[in-house]
């Protein structure tokens, strides 16, 4: 990427993006290995590397197959491996976002009385070309590519931006002397100046094995490597994107690869780490857990690994489980350690966690393995000794880290797909013309119930149990019927497929488990037969085997009959059984909610059935449907003939549901009261259903009640409360007062039942059903709940606007942080963990089930968010900083405001739906910066915090963070693999007929992206197109006619020129000056209007935008106390505002609508307050319904004059301060009845 100064228009700077000779940007199509799903990596005994996707069923050969590898270690974004030449290689997945690194250097000049500014500096000055500090000499020609895997994007260019403000031509910034504060304006005392030169390099070796080239001194080169392990990407408070790469050389020395991160995937150099002995193998977990094995059979554990010291501090020795057989192999995860001793026994380390990385004791597990590997979520894989097959450890959960049983992965290789077609015809003959095979298969399944459950079957070596017989051998063996039945007595149905077998096995034996080998039966309706073992794998008590070894030899000799019946070809062929040498699951995320396809053999039966179904022609299907319809019609006539003499029934039913809840009394004394509630639903003669909610309470020993007509309810919303499962019920009048009816249930399930019932009744009374329309208004609460409202044409019609507090909102399942839509039904959302989701067209989900939810298009959805608390300390002259503060100080453990005590113990997840997924750790990514221990310093509480200590700092604080996760469902599908920060969809109108829809986004790293091939039929699109920038961005918006505006992280605004359907990425950025002394954070573009929001909550309108000058001329202030803004396709303006004045309280996070927006008054006139508080995001970019044009009456001018903004005072009209600006008196406190959901 390169930026070069092209033109200057007044104070406007133009930058051009030219990537690899293409001004449109760099488009990278997502290849097969772009990881829409996570991958399991494995190496066979021939050194070939394979990958198996969690959503796939076949092993795929990795690219660059000519390389032979010994071992690999993988994470989500890359894989490192050691080839047979003992050299280290890395495989980085391709992505739509390139890996780019910015090189920079500064040109310094000093003013000379003779020639002005020149290159001649004083002897005490810095170098003419230096780094930002001036201490390092950096000329332009001194920068070289670190390895052949990089390439330059463009030549050097000058950065003409300083702190979000454009500089003069040439990019010079001025100061009094070196070093000092630089400004863009030249003054009389500006004696020095400097400018920054930038050049980008791009990592090009993606989707291929790239050799790690050592640039160190040859005498310091490490020995040839023997083992490698990568992890540490989630080290406590580790910068995002950093990896810890550890390697072991043939001489037994341990090496650490420095500076491996997202923008430097190959690292910089190898550092030697001293060890107490010669190391054989090493394993690194996602966090700070690192174990290694010694030649003597002991294990060593690295302690002291943290953000500031990724190498760790010291080693601790852990003895092997037994004195005779030492440890040969270890594998670590987050809180688990697995080991294999020299006698091939598998061991589990008990008591391992971040505070005790050494654990407490060893537990022997059943099974003999060559090696084991721990992946994400502490899932475990292993390679068995006998058959060299890969086994997956089932039943591993956070509560049972050791799992339950081993299960073999029997997936075929991609090259084997071509061999399955030849077996289809044989299978058809074997299935449909061989009753003997069918009877034999049924006998196997039926005999499973005869297995004794109170005794344990001895372990069968997999190489005997799985030895396949050829089809000819099986068919020629005519006297195997009896032995076939005997096999059935030792086989069982897959415990995952049979709940009854799982229950029986668990109840009978809970101390030991074995290896399971799936077998395929001929009948598709039957479950695969497997070897019977119990569930729990802790080898504490052995039981005597019931069967003799001779019986097992007889069984194993014919066990393949259950595995490969007549006509079924072996998946690997007779001589192609895969033998694995290594497996790595560090990048494999196994979802416990979705089943894997790794454990069933594809026999080709489904292909036969499919070919049979495809032989039915559409004409035959149509004839059958017509015949069935005629038969049903005749039957209906016959049935109705018997009831002709009955009168027509009139439905007038009444239905009542009662229950006990708690109700928040909104007058003094404010408290929760036990009440009886009754929901009465009745159906009128016109068929319209309506409902009334009665709440009965006692007041001064007198029974009273309040009632609410549900056709007047505008929203039902769950409310965050530490001690109550409560929800709020709003009506238009209560919305104005900010006083909803608050009810609480005893349990969360009871609350969700009432919410679902009340929501369904509200929708029935308003005749709303099915999915939202394309013009719906979407919103998100601060809790993450999603709400949608159907706008009426009068919502934007003047002069008789429908107040937005009368809008009805219904909930849609899912959990999001922000949401965007357009009028063609395209809806995208982003979760708190930056995962991207696209709307599937369904409705319901979450707690809304049954008839109120669509039967399809509902999928599982998860989200992860962070909970923050603050540790506060005050300086003491005797002891220094301590947790003892003054009586007037805040709590020593508190929230951000300091008004509420929040400790590590009493801080709970936001609601019972959330569960902790991490421990507390220090957050270093805090505004203002921190020191090495995460502290921020200030003169007093509260004040402006900074990351370094001064003599005037008497207090300090640091932020602790803990992650929690929610699992729900809703009409959303994930769009992998890039995580996003912001999203924008072009607000199409009803007249638009474009096939492709423009979707722009900002990644969580600040990259600008454009989504390709987004249509109504394919709302998720196909791939991302990267748009180059010279700094990270935080907000983007695409308006009508492909107007693209964006906000950079430093608060500056940019306009993207020449964007069109044929050039979706445009060609250049125009730097737009921000409002004076303000830093912007969000922008929203409509049809002709552009509104921006700064970091202080001020809303700005861009003046002077015309088709010939789309960048506009200046910013006009509109309002303050704004959190989010959304401009629709009709230039309508909706915001989320803070501190909105209600009748009784102040509300934070309120939906507000700008009234009076017209072509001659694009800024609008006043605010109309809607639902709130507790709202976080709103989008009206789908509401393209044109309002009927009604001429303003002369009598309305006085009403409009009263609602004008103070900024319009120059027009001779004075506005109402409380309605024009969302502003209140700062000293006024929030009312205790205000609801924050």
Automatic annotation (TrEMBL):
CDD domains: PH1_TECPR1. Its main location: membrane. GO terms for cellular component: autophagosome membrane; cytoplasmic vesicle; lysosomal membrane. It is found in: Cytoplasmic vesicle, Autophagosome membrane; Lysosome membrane. Residues 513-527, 1200-1217 have a biased composition (Basic and acidic residues). GO terms for molecular function: phosphatidylinositol-3-phosphate binding. It comes from the Eukaryota. Keywords: Autophagy, Cytoplasmic vesicle, Lipid-binding, Lysosome, Membrane, Repeat. Residues 446-485, 498-527, 1200-1225 are annotated as: Disordered. Residues 98-159, 171-204, 862-923, 934-967 form the Peroxin/Ferlin domain. Coiled coil: none annotated. Pfam families: Hyd_WA, Pex24p, Tectonin. Gene3D superfamilies: Pleckstrin-homology domain (PH domain)/Phosphotyrosine-binding domain (PTB) (2.30.29.30). The keyword Repeat applies. Residues 655-765 form the PH domain. One of its GO terms (biological process) is autophagosome maturation. Residues 446-455, 473-482, 501-511 have a biased composition (Polar residues). The keyword Cytoplasm does not apply. Belongs to the TECPR1 family. This is Tectonin beta-propeller repeat-containing protein 1. It comes from Alligator mississippiensis (American alligator).
